[in-house]
Records
---
Amino acid sequence: MIRVVLGLILLSVHSLADASSRIVCGGPLAVDADDQFHACVVINAGIGLSQFSPNTADSSWSIDNDQDIGFRLSAEYYFSRYSFLEAGYVDLGSAEFTNSNTAISATETISYKTPAVFIGSSYSLPTLPVDILAKIGVASVSTSSSSDLLLAHEDASAQFAWGLGLRYFLSTQWALKADFEAFSEDSHLSSLSISYLFGGRTHTANRQNKSSQVIQAAAAPIVIAEADSMTEIPADTDADGVIDTQDRCVTAQHLRNRVNQYGCVKYTGTFVNSQFASGSYAASINTEELDRYLSILIDHPDTQLNIIGHTDNIGSEADNLALSQRRADTVKAYLVKLGINAEQLITQALGEGQPIASNTTATGREKNRRVELQVLSQDEQ
């Protein structure tokens, strides 16, 4: 039996091919591009070391040698992507016993033979030619003694069994499999088997044979071209997605996709107020607030501002409408003086029609005497 197993191992090593191509029986690689599972059968034959630990506390016998050479044969059937059934037969060998009674000097043995069935799960590693296996099942542990004097553990009984395994592919269909199997509380086998796979799906890892790479590299001509000039990448100082040669606001740091085609920030809404005395168009302009936006207005040549004049309700409606226009013109003149293009500025008079506070109090009327600067969106221009 040992010669047969060793012969199979030597045969598989002799037929060693590129392990990047192998049959896959379990795991996500067991399905093809159409999500179709391919059933698979694996035959295993192996040899290993058996370990025995029988309970001899209630007898005059004690174990003298708790190890032996064991043999195993099994077949695995993969019926789904992650699951398989396995049926096998294991000859664990024999454990040797001696008796404390000096009248019984002979060494006796108990041999263990175990057919077993398992259900298990397998996973194929995507980048390595390795399968990981785990299984549970039932083993019919059959024991027989070399002498009628040795009555302990001479029976056949069903026992819970389990196992762990690791299969390493030597070629497309040949693999080595390491197993640890427990068939009862007192018998275990650590083994190395040779596996042969039928069916399944052939998987090719994303790697090439080194020798073929060397041959291809030697055969392919090597051409080194010297570039006439280095390609210069246009500068984008403020990292807004608009290159400096087209960016009109290159000195400002803006968020990408929040600028227009000129590299300037898009603004909307009202951002400045100017207060006036009652009946007057001489502005008391909050220059500190306004000056904070002058660089933005100058750097945005495509932006238009709507300058809106307002009044309180003191006086006639017609007089207030004219007064609100003069107030808007006053702020426009102030902005033009500071460098803003007059074509960007639109004036509008609303008189007393849109108060923001009550006109019944002096404080409310003061708030209503105002000019608002409103940035127009592209749709409003």
---
Amino acid sequence: MHSKIWIISVFLLMGFGLNLLKAQPPEDGVKIYAKSDLEAFEPYTRMKSALADVKFVKRLDLSLHELLTVPDGLGNFRNCVDLNLSENKIQALPAEIGEMMNLQYFNASRNIISKLPLSLNKLTYLQEMDLSNNLLVEYSGLLNNFPNLKYLYLDHNFIQELPWEIGNYKSLIELNLGYNQLRSLPESITSFPELRKLDLSHNFIGRLPNDIDKLSNLTELDLSNNMLTALPDSIVYLENLKVLNLRGNKLKVLPKDIVRLTHIQELDLRGNKFNGREKDRIRTKFLYATIKF
């Protein structure tokens, strides 16, 4: 009888131990938050009060403060998950931003930032980074793989070239590079296996990578207002594509097998050079899509 109780106790302890293992957080103890989770935390909107509660601050919102510089002390917010510096007049980000080791959501849009600090490489838990509507001429120096980065907004800047290393952001779901000054794309732009939405509109791009079909999960592709004269044949293998915007280019024909894009719902072809015959061919290929010429 005692031996049976002992055996049962051992199994219970083993099971309890396994449950403990399953329940343990990641080794570094960092919790990954969904954006909806942030609603549970009240944002701090004044730096003085935030510094007084520095260990408890999860959200720091200094947007619309007419700031010319970021207040000192940013590096003290090691538990902060969400930082909003948008809609100020900030010219540069301080190096100490890299000390915000738990930062996952960062918005510095609508400022006058022209260069990014290398310390951003330390923010390995970033899930979303919005640097849109600034004065960035280049996006370089950020060589970190950013393994958790899902949303990157760099639109409405003056970026002329992308580094090869941007292809290391393997978790990207959405990438917005619209309204820049890009003339070409690195081959690594096709290295995002999870990418769903890609916006390259309003640039000066003359050609797309031949292996664009590697973006196999893409559902929305905006190439409007560029300098494209032809599309690579491989684009027809983007079989999950639902929205394709080619408005304002120099296209005369679409690839022969464009009919493979069976999930297309919206196709914008306005402002190109299609003749009547090509328009008719396209219409017969996409009977159930909304097409704009």
---
Amino acid sequence: MKYATVLCALIIVVAASPAWAEPVPEWVKSAAGWWADGITSDAEFVAAIQHLIEIDIITIESAEQTEAEQTEAKQSGSIPEWVKSAAGWWADGITSDAEFVAAIQHLIKMGIVQVDAPGEAQSEDPRMAELQEQLEACAQYAKAYQRLDCEDGVEQQIIRLQYETEAVPYQVGPVIYYYPGAHLEMTDGGQPLLTIRILAVNDGTDNITLSCTGPAICNYDVTDGSAAYKYASTDFTSGSITIKPDYAKEFEIIFGPNIGYGGTTFVYDPAKEYHFRINETFGSASIPLDLE
């Protein structure tokens, strides 16, 4: 409750401030959303914040801390959950860039979010540094559609590189599936919701189509060894996803309540082992989910 009050106070202060001039790169917002959903780790979120520091959207200033704040910063083994909620609100467009940046900057000053000061950060992947330079260079386009097309192309490369460096790859025929981890949560009504986000890369020479036309006719499901669970939601909007050679597509599948059409209700038992199954015409795989 104390943290929520602090966040509200931060947002009120920023709302009275001048309009924010520096846009935050969209890939950082995507990273914050993944972190809020539990798909990526604290370390990956901090890396995104580190990037904002490096491009001068967030500046680090020294601040006097009370004894209680110093103790809290030292004892905290992870970033507080309310910060994760704030990142989710920002990623969903509920709060502005200015509000999010001001809140994170305050947390850095208070020592709640720990990052390296400029010049102290570990050297990053040179490929990521090059992509970030390309993203910043998109600002040279005067026409909005050209700038957005440029940014979208580079951001897709950044997302792919993040998956390639952080996720576990599974080769299935000509497609590489990158699995970064699943997110399991319980609704207020006690229904478990399992969210799986995957990046599929076409490593072949021909177009590849991933198929999932409905819960009963889908080449992707989850099993606990005795039962097969069909999806409750997916972004296979037209029933399939086509990927060109050397291109990548990100997709999300959620398992939960039975939505009909041959669907099932997802049941979670911590004593069981769960796998995400791929059964495409070009190959199959079973990915251990390691749910906790």
---
Amino acid sequence: MKILLSFVAMLLLFTGCNNAQIAQTTPSEQVTGETAEAIFAGGCFWCVEAGFEAYPGVTDAISGYIGGSAVDAEYQKVAAGQTDHYEAVKVLYNPELITYQDLLEIFWRQFDPTDDGGSFVDRGTQYKSGIFYQTEKEKVLAERSKQGLIASGIFEEPIVTPILQAGTFYQAEQYHQNYYKTNSAHYKQYRKGSGRDQFIERVWGNERMYTIARQLSTAELKNILTEEQFHITQQDGTERPFANAFFESKEKGIYVDLISGEPLFSSKDKFDSGTGWPSFTKPIYSHALTEGTDLKIGYPRTELRSAISDAHLGHVFEDGPLPSKLRYCINSAALRFVPVEKMVEEGYGEFFGGF
């Protein structure tokens, strides 16, 4: 695998591999209780595993192989380029402590996403990068994250990391698991010689370690929100029609979650419903919203909440214009508006097209 492996170490690795049993899993929603999983490839799986396990909320990172057409995978064949598998890592995490979006941010900081021929000193398709999604939500989040990285201008060269549907994940041989702990001296020697850390430091600097956003407490929300904003987002309130910030606004831009900043709606999909509340035909991303049944006024309505912050937003009704026939009726006090001229500056450059 690694150029800096000594002859003795290589011999030990290959001897161990001949006796190893390889576990495999197939993709699914992969959520059991408080555990979810995600799969990434960023070159040497020793390094990627160590990178993810440095963050709270990640319960385990498992080195393995994915993406190949062969019915199995083992280290000698993958490392020699005899299969089309990637070295990859399956990350097990608690979604209440760390989100898939957080994992994507951590992932981008670990390798060179402009390298299409391998990763640092390790060359070949087995060391190329990739995001392997297991659900449509993961696919959308990964695509959005990649577009955000492109729009940031951090890298001058094109981002070539593909977003691929996950197939069978083969767990790597046991001696590869937690290699950075069990063979720390050799791991540090390899990592230093590979150029990975030097690259990360040069590109990311003080931002090389990602800061995980946490949910604000009720007391903190009371301090940062106005009384009306708190009542609507946290106590499922409804603001007065025709007397709110955005019901008649025609300014171009996007509307984001007041608390999390998650993009929710675009002015391109806004229309005058005559109801006195901001109305949209569709959200930017359907996964950004969660739906539930609201019986507070005696008959069922479909309530909308932000998937990330869990803030109450409003309701969706089936009396909108064609083609969706949907009306997303949203409280202005649950939104923050980002005008088109500030979208790039505030990190929403990926939504700039079309205005």
